[in-house]
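To whoever is on call:

I kicked off a structure prediction for a single chain this morning and the downstream step that reads the tokens threw a length-mismatch warning. I double-checked the sequence; it's 438 residues and nothing unusual in it as far as I can see. Pasting both halves so you can look.
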Amino acid sequence: MIHTTSRVLVSDLRQHLGRTVSISGWVNTLRLERKMQFVLVRDHTGTAQVTHKRDDSELENQLEHVTTESAVRISGRVVDNPIVKLGGLEIIPEAVEVLNWAETPLPIDEHTGMEQRLDWRFLDVRKRPTAQLLFVVQTTMEQGMREYAYGQGCTEMHTPKLMGTASESGAEVFKLGYFDRAAYLAQSPQFFKQMAIAAGIDRVFEIGPVFRAEPSFTSRHATEFTGIDIELAWIDGVEDVMAFEEQMLAHALGKVAEVHGEAIEETFGMMVRVPETPFPRITMAKAQEILRATGWDPEGVKEDLDPEGERGIAAYIKEQTGHEFVFITHYPTSIRPFYHMRPADRPDLTLSFDLLWKGLEITTGAQREHRHAKLLKQAADKDTNTEAMQEYLNSFRYGCPPHCGLGMGLGRVLMIMLGLESIREATFLFRGPHRLTP
């Protein structure tokens, strides 16, 4: 066993010029020439060149036979070499320890397609700095959202992901065995965060897994994803949660731009812009009117916006206002859940919204109907079976305050921010209708 100094990260090598250090990482590439051996070693902060002049030593033999992606620990002296592109530094090795040999050949390379890369996701992420940067950015994005939510007095909750009854209609839920009965994976923390409001927790915040049994194969759908959920009590109206979301996104994107803006532009070719607030708002009716004037939905039968419609209205708003975000408001009752509040003068509409970013929906939200009698009537209007929802409905029988909330998909936010083609790339281990492994 080699006894060396503490591990030094590749990004910190310049601080150790002229000293002997120990680096740990993976063999990125090998260039084995007649007189020299060049080994590039990569850790999560960068890549360093190890340069060894052949001398018939054991060290030469180790470098000669090490394989790409083997985990190694190398100790050696850090020296200046301006012709080395990797920071103008190289390491003259004194000892090499192979911690774990990588088999050859590797199952993926730079030409491998996405589906096969997903089969070997640990290697895919490890070999590609772009993938590693994504998860660093994700961490900062979540940190920014939490900072804003905490600053606004939110309590972070952890709601159950196992449910005794299928929420709402029961479509789109995964059923599983639970001892001697059936259980369901939560397709949303919706009912539970409303219960928290009824429990006197005025502002609820959660980041957690969400499950949707949708047989969708699009670039933006997953059967399991990370949701960001907000619920606010004692509100004056749905605008309260819309204002909360736009401020939270502006704060989080500002943090990402500050910490990773340069790296994102260099790696992904995307500029992280901090959006101005307030975001534009447009009613669903107005959005459809604008789109139909351009030939969208010529039969005039679509109640909701399809992906083409979302892209179209986002392009219109961008042209008119210069803004990448837009709230679509006042969705018809027919395409919204029974618990969305309806305006007293327009029972055919709901006080609800979707938030689009660059033409892709990232959020659905609404003011909730908090009055028990009205909630039961709206459920009956939509032929919703309420027998299995008694615990949820009980939350509204004893003074539940007015409240509103939203659910946002973290993967979609990352996908748009970094210009990725598919949510598969914005997820560590993707789950879809045909993918349950690795």
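Update from on-call: the warning came from a stale cache, not from the record. Cleared it. Sanity check on the structure: The mean pLDDT is 95.
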